[in-house]
Write a structure and sequence with these properties.
Layout lengths: L15 E5 L11 E4 L2 E5 L2 H8 L12 E11 L5 E6 L27 E3 L8 E3 L1 H11 L34 H16 L6 E7 L8 E8 L10 H12 L2 H5 L1 E10 L4 E5 L1 H5 L3 H11 L11 H15 L6 E2 L3 E7 L10 H7 L7 E6 L4 E2 L15 H18 L3
Antiparallel strand pairs: 1-2, 1-5, 2-3, 3-8, 4-5, 4-8, 6-7, 9-10, 9-13, 10-11, 12-15, 13-14
């Protein structure tokens, strides 16, 4: 029955029903929403090793690590698939986190349902329109223009090869796409009793009403030390054919709130791979444009944070951040500080420091001296990552100067 809890009475006191994270704009691994301030993702030992030994200087530029939780797949008699987290089964590393998640007896679930498609051509899991709309409204308060055709197909692009907008969505479909693939992989490979370990991480966009997010794949090399020869060749080719080789950075995903339409304009990794250096610059400009004007007020705080990160990365000897991403985030809802609501803005609106954020994410292929999963030892800082940061800062400075 629709609306019925997928949890058994004995489970509901401790279990958390995970929902797709609607603000995932890049990557291939599914991010899930655990609670308002916490997301989770499938655990990779190399990434866990990074978070457990994170240098103090890097903590302001990475999501806070909150521990590990056990997750299992649940399927009801109608074929509905859900992911259930069991806080009571958290591993020991959870006890070492700085800010423990609240009382695990509080069930965080929104009765979201997924059903397996009957189509043999598209054996993905589909959301119902009602539940996706509700989840997005919960995540983005305010008057949103929500379309009714919220179906996403793996072969559809948000922008076609000629650069024309194929869709204007009020949500970003990429996270749902990743979630669909992940659920199907899990259901085909494992039974329901199989416990999977997930990393618990800070939701870095939880403080934003309309989070504008740019996901940038950093560095001139993307393959990890453990990559097969086939995978290595594939990643090298992607870098050579994109701005990764020429600039050390490429667009991996984006959502930017358009104040004139109330929609998020979305781009995915396929769009980013096709960009020339000039196209990359124009996409950065587009990321800072709200449909009415260029948000020049954001350039200085973004550049300052990128310079601070650059200073930190230069000092991290032996680290190689292969295939990691950099998120640039800002609040898409502008606030005009007029006299009649100046007090409201001062107490409720993001300041120049909080309205912009820069965070490194995705460390499944990061290696460093002392890592439990170390494959190769490197000396000095990650010059490919530094090259990308320097070019990113230079391009943003040129935009700031009107070039």
């Amino acid at each position: 029955m629709v609306g019925q809890s997928p949890l058994e009475p004995s489970e509901s006191r401790t279990a958390v029903l995970l929902e797709p994270f609607v603000h995932q704009v890049g990557g291939h691994m599914s991010m899930m929403k655990y609670d308002e301030h916490t997301v989770c993702k499938p655990l990779v030992l190399q990434e866990l090793s990074f978070y457990e030994s994170l240098p103090l200087a890097m903590r302001q530029f990475t999501p806070q690590y909150k521990g590990v939780v056990s997750v299992h797949l649940k399927k009801d008699s109608l074929g509905n698939l859900t992911l259930i987290a069991s806080p009571s089964l958290q591993t020991e590393s959870c006890g070492r986190r700085d800010n423990p998640i609240g009382d695990s007896s509080v069930t965080i679930w929104h009765k979201c349902k997924w059903t397996t498609s009957n189509s043999s051509e598209n054996p993905l899991v589909k959301w119902s329109h009602t539940q996706l709309t509700k989840t997005f409204k919960d995540s983005c308060p305010g008057k949103m223009l929500l379309r009714t055709d919220l179906q996403y197909h793996t072969d559809s692009l948000l922008e076609d090869a000629n650069g024309n907008e194929a869709e204007r969505n009020s949500y970003n479909p990429w996270g749902l796409h990743c979630h669909q693939q992940h659920l199907n992989r899990m259901s085909s490979k494992h039974n329901e009793n199989k416990l999977h370990q997930f990393l618990l991480l800070e939701n870095v966009v939880s403080k934003y009403n309309y989070p504008c997010i740019l996901d940038l794949k950093m560095g001139t090399r993307q393959h990890g030390d453990d990559a097969s020869e086939e995978k290595k060749a594939r990643h090298i080719k992607k870098c050579e054919q994109s701005t990764s080789a020429s600039l050390g950075v490429r667009v991996c995903g984006m959502q930017v709130y358009q104040a004139d339409t109330g929609h998020f304009l979305c781009k995915d990794k396929y769009y980013g791979r096709k960009l020339s250096p000039e196209g990359f610059k124009q996409t950065l400009r587009q990321f800072l444009c709200n449909g009415n004007h260029l948000r020049t007020d954001l350039l200085e705080p973004i550049i300052l944070q990128l310079k601070a990160l650059l200073s930190v990365i230069r000092k991290q000897s032996s680290y190689r951040f292969y295939s990691s991403s950099l998120l640039i985030i800002y609040e898409g809802q502008e606030h005009k500080e007029k006299d009649n609501h100046l007090h409201f803005c001062k107490s409720n609106c993001p300041t120049s420091h909080t309205r912009v954020d820069v965070r490194m994410i995705d460390f499944a292929h990061t290696t460093f001296k002392g890592s439990k999963c170390n494959h190769t030892m490197y000396d000095g800082p990650d010059h490919g990552y530094i090259f990308g940061l320097e070019n990113l800062i230079k391009i943003l400075q040129n935009i700031s100067e009107g070039k």
